[in-house]
Fold:
Amino acid sequence: MALNTRNNVLVIGGSTGIGLATAILSLSQLPGANVIVSSSSKDKLEKAVETLKAGPTAKDKLIDYIVGDISNFATQKDDVEAILKTATEKFPGGKIDHIVWTAAGPSSATLGGNPTSQDALTASTARVYGPLTLCHLAKTYMNDTRRSSITISSGVLVYKPRPGIGQVLGAASMDVAARALAVDLAPIRANSVILGPVQTTLLDGLTKGKQEVADHLANATLVKAIAGADEAAEAYLYSMRCAFVTGSGIGCEGGMLIT
Ligand SMILES: NC(=O)c1ccc[n+]([C@@H]2O[C@H](COP(=O)([O-])OP(=O)(O)OC[C@H]3O[C@@H](n4cnc5c(N)ncnc54)[C@H](OP(=O)(O)O)[C@@H]3O)[C@@H](O)[C@H]2O)c1
Structure:
């Protein structure tokens, strides 16, 4: 199936890390790509847009940002809908073709001991309930064809938990969610990306000043490495580009799941 000639891409969590890398790759890899990045920080978004506009494939494309904090459980529906509505007002042609969700609040990986259900809710509001809210709302704002996609983020911890985070991971089965959402959203496709360790500010929070933690993570993969954000972005591009992949958990974890 031919790719769209225009691809309007919204990256929620696109100011840094894997989201920003996906926005950069979308501009060079998707025909007629227009990119809007969204996150809670205006400063970071302005920097991200500067980076995107400086790229070699930015000419004649819409590159913009929307500030939106999606971490408040009580207002999340309105907050996500405001992002979608603003995006459709900005994108040429109106509707969105691809939505990537890489927004993350506080990390479950940094929770110690035995997290409470409140900890689980805090860690899950942006990563779990956010994408679910998005999928509940998105169809009206998207081109309703199998060329369109929603790609959400998951991680190896779901399959290889470390002690003490069962409570959090119980709510975090985004790969299962992607399968069910693919059914609900069809023909729009829904996939998750199962990530291993990726060098971003999020991972820096775990490894900064702790080379032994970084070494441990790299050694836990088959390829003995931590991925670059650009490598992780390739998995999101696959989800966007292949109009026959839906309900899939796309692995990008360096073989960590079979070590
Ligand atoms: N890096 C890894 O090793 C790894 C491994 C497994 C899974 N993951 C998952 O991959 C996804 C991307 O992570 P990353 O490593 O790229 O992290 P990152 O660089 O920290 O990016 C997280 C993004 O989320 C945004 N964000 C944070 N709080 C927000 C809020 N309240 N409202 C809206 N946006 C918010 C951040 O922007 P602002 O600060 O500007 O709001 C940023 O754009 C996450 O879901 C993460 O759990 C990452």
User: Anything to note?
Assistant: The longest strand covers residues 33-39. The chain has nine helices and nine strands.
